[in-house]
Amino acid sequence: MTEGTDNALLERFEQDIWSKVPHLEEGSETRVVNATPLVDMTADFKECAKTVFKLDLDNADLKVFGKMDSTLLTGSIKVRPAANIINDAIVTGKLRSGQTVIEATSGNFGIALGLLSKLGLNVIALVSRKLQEGVFEELRNGNTRTIDL
After folding, report:
1. 84-111: pLDDT as tens digits
2. What gap in Å lies between CA 111 and CA 137, rounded to an integer?
3. Are residues 50 and 111 both part of a single domain?
4. Is 84 in the same domain as 144?
5. For residue 26, is it left (φ>0), alpha (ψ between -120 and 50) or beta?
6. Residues 88 and 139 in one domain
7. pLDDT tier at 1 (50, 70, 90 boundaries)?
8. Domain CATH for 101
């Protein structure tokens, strides 16, 4: 952290966003990707093996897990880089309470940045008029102001 770090903003960010988004945590002996959403897909895998490949794995001692980024905040993998960029900006003092973040986006990254509104920051997304209405809705639901280009 630097002298200019907004510690109150960093604390809110870590509690409300960072703790819920997969990110690399480095300890003295380990490196762990925290909060990665895994779903047990064993039953589906066995059914697929039986149906598609005619393999009977019912008695096989195995577990199959899938990484399901659709279960992340915002439902998109784009929340990962957004959270890392936000974390770096807060830690280095580049992003502080009361500031506005402006992003040109076609959707998911802007939606992920919209999480900043939960921290009391303003987010403006510069978007194409041709963007799908569903994306506009998600941006607005996240309290992100949109400006059509």
Report:
1. 999 999 999 999 999 999 999 988 899 9
2. 10
3. no
4. yes
5. beta
6. yes
7. low
8. 3.40.50.1100
Which domain, by its residues, includes 48? 38-70
Spatial distance between the Cα atoms of 16 and 133, rounded to a whole number of angstroms: 27
pLDDT beyond 80 at 2: no
- Tens digits of per-residue pLDDT, 45-58? 999 999 999 999 99
* Average pLDDT of every residue of the chain: 90
- Residue 145 half-sphere exposure, CB side, CA atoms within 13 Å? 8
* Distance between CA atoms of residues 115 and 106, nearest Å: 16
* CB contact set of 127 (below 8 Å; sequence gap of 6+): 104, 105, 106, 110, 135, 136, 139, 146, 147, 148, 149
Q: Which of 68, 72, 133 is nearest to 107 (CA)?
A: 133
d(CA 11, CA 84): 15
Neighbour tally for 22: CB within 10 Å:
19
